[in-house]
Design a protein that fits this description.
alpha+beta, D-Maltodextrin-Binding Protein, domain 2, about 25% strand, disordered N terminus, 16 helices, Dipeptide-binding Protein, domain 3
Length: about 500
């Protein structure tokens, strides 16, 4: 038995001992719990088939209304969910899933292998579709995925949050109502079922007593779009919401001073980093590695973490979080403005230069302003350009932005999936690539020997660091305010993960 099959066997044993089976004694769901969200809820997030690979935001709704064959859960990177178990063939080309029997969607339709096949066909993501040769229905409770060749990251893409290919929609209902009808009234297999949604305002859901894992404790949950942080905090203080996400340091301090409220931290999945979009132009100052290093040394990461997150966000020298599989731990560059100025002078810019625009990833505009200030202090002049979230994503992906980006990489999985959007030339946010790194990245993607693959990925990460391809800042962990009615907000139950999940685990205090 090869080592990948041994891992599969270990995963099967973990399934048996996972403790994720239905809870014997259930209490009736009671009460209502409200969250103040920092972005506008998009109806596209109601449909797993609309979730783009690498984009984490839809999962705070997918975890509520939908379910996956395999997904991250507390204590497990890949927890059996709609699939009770799975096996992997000796040649690593066939994955067969045994589906949990007797499950029904919120509208009463039975969950079968046809829904798995249909949902995969609808899923976004060219890579996983290129790798999968066939999805075959063995019988109503067994589905078989056949790959063109061994691909060690199949389960990383299918069974974590790299993509939503493993999240299931009801085939019959979707074909009956169409995409527009599904967005108006989504149907899923998750712990909460859709009640209503006012675009740009809120999403209301109620507990689904047929959820296989456990009956939720809270009867009704409401997600409210509140883009202004001070408004989120004010609503929390007035008792209008129970959880206020994403509070800056000053607002977090206000929570700490209020005896009725609690401060909680979550995240750790998104790494903020400076991306040199113009470095691939030989005429740009950013083409010089010394200039990129100077920019990195100009940034005081510890102070930014203190100002933005009360020091909760640890500086990182890598865009891969240290807890990820195949991650190489790299210390962040020190804050050394004197050395930064020296490097600029050596590169031919003793008086600095005008670097043009700097685009901060929405909504982290104050981080962008801080980076601009630090760069300006060593002579690198930039102008902060803020954009609405959807427009920013579109412009960055179509390579229309010039200058600098204080970007955020929140791709789930392992080191390979983490690098997939920015390192290989086909990456959606890659403005250029190094041919030697590209070759190693392609090689590791089919390497089934775990030790050899880890060595390749470590080499890639070390080389990216030495060439200062990025200037990583920190792994972003942010503050939320918790109201007095909340017993358990289920934050960081999945580590790393930013939002309350699993939602069937959140609890209100007993009156």
């Amino acid at each position: 038995m090869n080592q990948w099959c041994k891992l599969a066997a270990a995963a099967f044993i973990a399934v048996v001992a996972s403790g994720l089976g239905p809870v014997a004694a259930q209490t009736k769901p009671e009460g209502e719990m409200r969250w103040a969200l920092y972005v506008t809820i998009a109806p596209t997030w109601f449909d797993p088939g609309e979730a783009s690979p690498g984009v984490l935001t839809p999962f705070w709704i997918l975890y509520a209304m939908h379910d996956a064959l395999v997904k991250p859960m507390p204590g497990q990177r890949m927890a059996p969910s709609l699939a009770e178990s799975w096996t992997v063939s000796e040649d690593l080309r066939v994955y067969e899933f045994t589906l949990r029997p007797g499950l029904k969607f919120h509208n009463g339709d039975a969950f079968t292998a046809e829904d798995v096949q249909y949902s995969f066909q609808r899923a976004k993501g060219s890579l996983i579709h290129q790798k999968v040769k066939e999805v075959a229905i063995v019988d109503p409770t067994h589905v078989r995925f056949v790959l063109h060749e061994p691909w060690p990251d199949f389960m990383t893409f299918y069974g974590t949050l790299v993509s939503a290919a493993g999240w299931i929609v009801p085939k019959n209902y979707m074909e009956k109502v169409g995409l527009a009808g599904f967005k108006r009234h989504p149907i899923g297999l998750g712990p909460y079922k859709f009640v209503s949604s006012t675009p740009g305002v809120d999403l209301v859901m109620e507990a689904y007593d047929g959820f296989w894992r456990k009956t939720p404790s809270v009867k009704r949950i409401v997600f409210m779009s509140i883009p202004e942080a001070t408004t989120r905090l004010a609503m929390l203080m007035r008792g209008e919401v129970d959880v206020a996400y994403l509070l800056d340091a000053s607002l977090a301090e206000s929570v700490k001073r209020d005896p009725k409220l609690k401060l909680a931290f979550s995240g750790g999945i998104g790494t903020a980093y400076l991306d040199f979009l113009d470095m691939w132009d030989p005429k740009s100052p950013w083409a010089d590695q010394r200039v990129r290093l100077a920019a990195s040394l100009a940034i005081d990461r510890k102070t930014i973490s203190e100002v933005e997150t009360l020091g909760a966000s640890p500086p990182n020298g890598n865009i891969v979080p240290p807890g990820f599989e195949f991650a190489l731990k790299i210390a962040a560059d020190p804050y050394d403005p004197a050395r930064a100025k020296q490097l600029l002078a050596e590169a031919g810019y003793p008086n600095g230069f005008d670097a043009g625009d700097l685009y901060p990833w929405p909504p982290y505009f104050t981080t962008g302003e801080a980076v601009t200030s630090y760069l300006g202090a060593v002579g690198i002049k930039t102008r902060v350009r803020t954009m609405e979230r959807a427009a920013f994503y579109a412009a960055l992906a179509t390579k229309k932005l010039k200058g600098l980006c204080v970007c955020v990489n929140a791709v789930y999985g392992n080191a390979a999936s983490r690098l997939s959007e920015t390192v290989p030339p086909e990456g959606v946010y890659a403005y250029g690539s190094f041919p030697d790194i590209e070759a190693i990245y392609k090689q590791q993607a089919t390497e089934t020997n775990v030790a050899k693959r880890e060595a390749m990925l470590h080499q890639i990460q070390q080389t990216l660091h030495e060439r200062r391809r990025f200037a990583p800042i920190y792994d972003y962990i942010w503050a939320s305010g918790i109201g007095p009615r909340v017993e358990d907000p289920s934050l960081m139950a999945i580590d790393p993960y930013p939002w309350s999940t699993p939602l069937e685990d959140v609890r209100l205090k007993k009156p």
